[in-house]
Amino acid sequence: MTLRLDVLLAILGMAAATYLCRAGGYALFRALRPPRVVEVALQHLPGPIFVAYVAPALAAQGLKGLVAALAVVVAQAVSRNLAVAIAAGVAVMWAAGMVV
Amino acid sequence: MSGPAVTFTRAGLLRGARQAAPLVIGTFPFGLVVGVISDAKGLSLLETLLMSALVFAGSSQLLALELWTEPAPIAAATLAAFVVNIRLAPMGAALAPWLDRLRGVRLWGSLATLVDHSYALSAADQRRGGRDAAFLLGVGVALWTFWMIAVGVGHVFGSAVRLPPGHPLYFAATATFCAILVPIWQGVRRDMLPWTLAGIVALLAWGAGLGPPWPLLAGALCGAALGAWLELRRG
């Protein structure tokens, strides 16, 4: 049950940044109407965030990562169940590890 | 603002908690993944639970953990949390018909539990004519409770099994983000070009040797900017 200072500071930094988004966002948007381009850009942010994370992570895995990602997307689209989708991706990676 | 008064009751709180129950099935595996990855990155159970309790935003936690180094990357983790969670900023404003009627700890406490799911359920309840602002807190507290359980179970499992580095199970983190993309996708016209640009920019930054969180930041901001530009140009 350790609690290291560097980890605690990182957690507190994340917590502060997140609360700023939750509460500061409400306060700020109420106080001053932001320009429409900001609002629209925020609506567009989630997709690019996760694509920008996933692209290098998959590139580092090579072909098997790409196949596994495809399996995840198909499984999620068909089942609409996060657990099924994650399991499909892990299963492909596991199978690829057996083959190679 | 006119119309019937907004209330904040125990009944509203419980109704929110009950409506959150089906969502737990969807968020539980996510919490398990966060717990397993936290353990793999060397966080103790206490550190893991503290992060989950205070941050309580799964994708930002998972993303920060993916960038994790020894010693902890204080600035990078903070920045990652901000970028991933800035999407929550307009949600509070959208719930203004309720939140504007709250004061003090009820207002700022309710906002502390705001997540995508509690926003979505509350916005729907508001459209149906819901007047009880405690509904938002009820959903949030229920999701928070099960989030803590899921992350804790994941961490205990991870430290019991002691997976070697490179184990296929660690792909679960990347898989989670691939899966999250599916419901976010709103069609070729809106998302194809921005998402493609985000991926290309991230790959270029990564290929150029830039460390985290820069490929993520560059890709995300370029993609969102292009998406906004295209949408406003279409009018």
TrEMBL record, chain B:
TM region positions: 20-37, 49-68, 74-99, 134-157, 169-185, 192-208
Keyword entries, A-Z: Cell membrane, Membrane, Transmembrane, Transmembrane helix, Transport
Location of the protein in the cell: Cell membrane
Primary location: membrane
Stored InterPro entries: Brnchd-chn_aa_trnsp_permease
Keyword S-adenosyl-L-methionine: no
Pfam families, sorted: AzlC
Membrane association type: Multi-pass membrane protein
Transmembrane helix is among the record's keywords: yes
Protein family: Belongs to the AzlC family.
Protein name (record): AzlC family ABC transporter permease
